[in-house]
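hey so u asked for the seq, here:
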Amino acid sequence: MMRVMPNTNPQRNDAGGGYARFLTTGFTLLAIIGGPTVLGFFADRLFGTLPLFLLVGLVLGFVASLVYVYRALKSLDGG
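ran it, structure tokens below
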């Protein structure tokens, strides 16, 4: 009977977690930017002011995404 050594390579065990973190971050950024932009688009169609609320939603989403990235990086640092 052959004995198999356990895998002690930490890089192999952690590979899936890195992809999941980046995928989650990407979808979160998409939702943070896209949500207010889409809401602004529909508000413009409702009120008849086509580019106004769309641009406001886009700017608010961009600022919120910067805040999200800042907090995510700060938590990675341990602070």
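Residues 50-79 form one domain. Helices lie at 10-47, 50-77.
lmk if thats what u needed
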